[in-house]
Amino acid sequence: MSENDSPLDATALRERTRAVCARFPDEYWTRLDEERTYPAAFVDALTADGLLAALIPAEYGGLGLGVREASVIMEEINRSGGHSAACHAQLYIMGALVRHGSETQKRRYLPDIAAGRLRLQSLSLTEAAAGSDTTRIETVAERDGDEWVVTGEKSWTSRMAETDLAIVVARTSPRGEARTRGLSLFLVDLREVRERQPDAIVVTPVRTMFNYATYSVRYRGLRLPADAVVGTVGEGFRHLVDGWNAERILLAAEAIGDGYWFIERAVEYARSTERFGRPIGANQGVQFPLAEAWMRIRAADLVRYSAADRFDRDDAGVGVEANTALYLASEASWAAANAALDTHGGFGFVDRYSIERKFRETRLYQVAPVSTNLIRAHIAQHELGLPRSY
Length: 390
Fold this sequence. Notes:
single chain, alpha+beta, Butyryl-Coa Dehydrogenase, subunit A, domain 1, Butyryl-CoA Dehydrogenase, subunit A, domain 2, Butyryl-CoA Dehydrogenase, subunit A, domain 3, 3 domains, four-stranded mixed β-sheet, four-stranded antiparallel β-sheet, about 15% strand
């Protein structure tokens, strides 16, 4: 990056991201989707350009940007036809380390992450029996002298085979009346684990309906040094909340990017495809769903920026705004996906148009990282003041 190329300028940041994405056309993503292969070349290109170091402070070699700017990067990846799931975790997981990590941890790892020598791409949190109720996780970390011993099983730990570092969430004290207390975050250097404790972690691939590189993981007496704890022992849930709000905003931006992509592709097809002697885009049955989807995407886009600005200001009310952004964006991207598929007709199911691939990818946002029903319940309780429902 030259001195004159300011990453704080949104237009320059978009162009910079698009320039990287332009090197990875539809054919690249289609092939990887068929093979269920991690897009290592794409992630390496983003890293080399410094984009995955967006949220790392400049003093540690990063761009020192806010979530607002990081969301632009995520949006543009999906708007260019790519799939940002391969790398978004390196942005939102970063918050736990930057905000709550020790100075020793930050100086040890952040410069290498920013330079692309290390990947921090995995949060090992979800368990099959707990699901969305994070306070019910059963993976435990017990103190043994100067070490912690981690035992348990996680069901959705994405990119575990593609990362060098991971944040693992475990219970360090029993669940009590203060149900959010007793969880702790551990920064795990998987390079050392693979060398010294190769049997302590068992990673099993999980095939999903789109290319997501996710795994089930078993921790079998994994030994970690005392200084692996990120933040305060027992306060890991509170540390996670920061990351969740950032994650919701970034994924909202991804869904918005998908939405714009669907609309742009559908409009192009509707203009260029003739049936019965005129472009199909002249028919209101084609126009109206696309116009409505665009308006929904535009509305979600505005809430995304509002949420990002509140996050970057450390506004206490960011949770409601972040959840609202994800809800609106996920609903809008799904509406755009269906409108694009209908516009393409049978060709929407053909892989060379990429509609069917992105259709499968964008469906995720209504389910993960949090379902739209849980978002509705969150808004009802925290914004409308209704009784807790879960």
